[in-house]
Structures are given as C-alpha cells and as structure tokens.
Amino acid sequence: MLSALCARTQAQTVTDKIVATVTNGSRATPDIVTYSDLVWQLALEPGRPFSATPGSAALNDALRRLEDQLLILQEARKLPSPDTPEAVAQLDKDVQDKINELVRAFGSRTALEERMTHVGLSTEHLNAIMRDRVAIERYLDFRFRSFVLISPKEITDRYNQRYGSLRNTGRIIPPIDQVRDRIEDELREEKIESDISNFIDTLREQPGTEIVVLNAV
Fold first, then answer.
1. Residues 163, 161: Cα–Cα separation, whole Å
2. What is the CATH number of domain 6-146+207-213?
3. How does pLDDT run across 132-153, given as a tens digit for each residue?
4. Closest CA relative to residue 67, chosen from 209, 162, 163
5. Is beta strand 6-8 parallel, antiparallel or unpaired with respect to 13-15?
6. Dist CA 215 CA 38 (whole Å)
7. Of the N and C termini of the chain, which has fewer Cβ atoms inside 10 Å?
8. CB-CB contact of 7 with 16 (8 Å)
9. DSSP annotation of 11
10. How far apart are alpha carbons 137 and 131 in whole angstroms?
11. Where are the domains of the chain?
C-alpha cells in the first residue's frame, strides 16, 4: 500500500521495515505492509489512545485490518478506473471529503496534524491512504450496498423483538410506521457488515491469496 522506508517522529527516527506482503494472485508483485503503515493506521483512529510506539497487540490488530483492506483493494483494482476529467475531479473531492471527516472526528485539523507529525505521516501519504480508502468504499458500495434488500417480515420481526416485551407495561410504544425507516436502515447496515465480513473471509481462503508475515510486530 505504501512503500516508505523511513518514518520520522518529533523526538526520534524510527527505522522502518517490511512487516508483511499481501497478494490475491492477480498481480506479479504483492503489496507490502511496512511498520509505518501499521503505526499510521493506528494513529488515524480517533478513538484510540495515541502512542507513537504502540504495543504488539495494537500492531497486530492494525496488521489484520490492513491485510483485509489490501485484499479488497486488489479486487477493486480489477475494475476499470474512469479517467475522464469529471471522474478525476470527483475522486479528488471524495478524498478531500474523507480527510474532512477525519478532521471532524479528531475535533480539529490541529489535532490531526499533531498525530501526523508524531508518527512521520506526511500530507502526501495521508492523501494516498485516503485514496485507497475511497477506492475500497466505492468497491464495497458497488458490490454490496446496492443489492441489499430488507423484507417487510424482517422489519416486523425486529420491531416485535425490540418492543414486544414492552406491551402492557404502561410504557409508550411507537407504532411500527414511525420507526420503520430506522429499523430498515439498521437491518441494512447489519446485513452489509455481515456480507463484507464473509467476503473478506472468502478472499483470505481463495486460491491465490498469500499473506506472508516477514517480521513479527
């Protein structure tokens, strides 16, 4: 995903290393995951306590997520990539929107930039990471979100599951028409999440997929 061989923090220089290679067999050379990639992945998680030198458990968690992301990205690369001026402009906008979402999640641009500085993450590398994430999201939307259907029975079953036990208790129960859209959205997101999880498992197990961990973290 990223092939930088050196990452700098404010206080020290960290010698980088290739941690793993990931391929689904569709390219002559696999994508690589470096130690910097792991640290950057963790640093860009707003809810995670920050550490410029994260522990082994956190690094392995990041490695697993990056492996999954790369396998999906490799599938996304199989699709033709529009290169019209309009498509390029839309991609640039989507990347900037993604960065703006990250800024809001951190509370300010300053807070995000402070983390980036501490782990040697440049604006160029951030843009590259966001471009990959946009590509992944677009592919998953194309592959799953457009085809998820929720039946009326599923909505009714979830409504009864959530509110059935409250009947005859004196509590106010919203009519199903009032909460139908919310329940449908909830069920849709659950189904998409499950489908994506199963898809990733399939990618990991399919012939041609090879994930090689070269250095322990």
1. 6
2. 1.10.4030
3. 999 999 999 999 988 899 999 9
4. 209
5. antiparallel
6. 12
7. N
8. yes
9. S
10. 10
11. 6-146+207-213
